[in-house]
Amino acid sequence: MAQSVSVKICTGTACYVMGGANLLMLEECLPEHLKGRIEIEGTSCMGYCSLGEKGKAPFVMINDQLISEATLEKITEKIKTMLE
Amino acid sequence: MNNRYFLEVDYYHEYKYRQLVGGDVFLSRKIKEENRVISVLSDGLGSGVKANVLSTLTSTMASTFISNYIDITRTAEIIMKTLPVCKERKISYSTFSIVDIDEHGDTRIIEYDNPPYLLLRKAQVVDIDKSTRKVEGSSQKKVDVQYSRFQTEKGDRIVLLSDGVSQSGMGMAGTPFGWGMDDVARFAVSLIEQNNDISARELARKIVQRALANDAYRSKDDITCGVIYFRNPRNLLIMSGPPIDKAKDIELAHMVDSFSGQKVICGGTTANIVARELDRKLKVDLSYIDPDIPPPSLMDGVDLVTEGIITLCEASEILKSGDVNRLPERGNAAQRIVHMMLNNDSIQFVVGTKINDVHQDPNMPVELEIRRNIVKKIVKILEEKYLKETKLQFI
User: Fold this and answer.
1) B292, A25: Cβ pair inside 8 Å?
2) Alpha helices in chain B (DSSP H)
3) Chain A residue with Cα closest to B361
4) Does ipTM come in above 0.85?
5) CB distance from A58 to chain B under 8 Å?
């Protein structure tokens, strides 16, 4: 179990139009008891969108795990499994 | 404009309280081939749509005729004879002030019934001799037109006002006869004393807002102020897109580093290249989130870092709409770019021509333009509508 997680949300063009804009609201959707243990950052284009084999935008990196077609639900789930 | 100085022309206006259209029109035109700028402020009889038709006609005709070297007296005559006659008042009437400046700073100003222009030099009002010319008006009556000619110096500002400024506050306890030209001039001088480099836009805005305050925020007339400011050009570099050849990455980074002026990078990949080559940190600034425009980033030595194509498209839309006076200063990334464009005179675009394949994916929910095309569009609007000097370089 990790003590804290870092969440990097891609704000590049492809990620942003494919739904990344909503992901920036992540902090507001998190359960209260997890908030203090999560560090949310934006990042400029990470380049995964052009690789193809990594899946589709939007991309989010949680610690060292890449999530493709990220949604708020997917991210929250992932964070929970890492922290709880 | 030329090497000696740059002409910054801008204006600000408020309509008469509860009017949706203004009777004041400020129009500027830059003739690039001749390095000439012509600005016209016109105030049509009455207010609202009728007045707007009069003043739009007047300013358009004036700038067209003067730019084609048609004699000023003749221009004034044609305008007065062309304007439609008001049904109620039986006159056709619209005031005007026309400023014509060439590349050497030779300035000619023609005024008809507007408050007199102010020439401000080193935070002082300079008096200019004016000669009166008789022009035939609409009803065979001769009217007086003021003509003046002088040589401008670097740092000079010419301020054009509609009577909504000079007469603001009329009837109020503090200003029973209105603000008055002497006090307007004193106010303008005090603004320059506070900030020697105040931009044309800011000076015009502050004068108009003060006039609006004089009217207790219910303007009794359209309030318009236009400012022409002669100064050293302010430079802005806008870099967008990775070079087609990776070997040029370092060249791109050095261009950013060595540029003297404000710098903007539009595009995550471009920003990553510059950060890598110059060994700088890049951090997304999440202090202001906009659902449509990706947030800007921070990098040492660069004034603004934004996402690329969405931001540029939005900036282009804002510039095209012309609705730039009420933009928040710390708004989204596109609004910030527009602010920087308007506050600078000479804007250099360096555009990488590598095409981002991901953007051409038909599954994208929005259509993304090709960078080169959107930049070309922006360049055209900046030149024609905002009288900016631009350079466009592909890499």
Assistant:
1) no
2) 48-67, 72-82, 163-166, 181-194, 200-214, 249-258, 268-278, 309-321, 333-343, 371-384
3) A14
4) no
5) no
| Residue segments in chain B with a per-residue pLDDT below the cut of 50 | 1-2
Q: What DSSP string describes A12-75?
A: SHHHIIIIIHHHTTHHHHS-GGGGGGEEEEEES--SGGGTSTT--S--EEETTEEESS--HHHH
**Cβ neighbours of B269 in A, within 8 Å:** 12, 44-45, 47
**A49: closest chain B residue by CA:** B358
Q: Distance (Å) from the C-alpha of residue A52 to the closest C-alpha of chain B? A: 9
Q: Which residue of A has its CA nearest to B366?
A: A17
Chain A closest-CA separation from residue B307 CA (Å) = 6
Tens of pLDDT along B237-274? 999 999 999 999 999 999 999 999 999 999 999 999 99
Average pLDDT, chain A: 89
Distances (CA, A) of B348 to B235, B237, B309, B378: 8, 5, 17, 12
Q: Rounded to whole angstroms, how far apart are CA atoms B129 and B29?
A: 26
Interface of B with A in 310-339 (CB under 8 A): 310
* pTM score of the predicted model: 0.69
> A71-82 b/e with 16+ CB inside 10 Å = b?
ebeebbebbeeb
Residue among B268, B286, B292 whose CB faces A44 most closely: B268
Q: Do residues B236 and B348 make contact, with C-beta atoms less than 8 angstroms apart?
A: yes
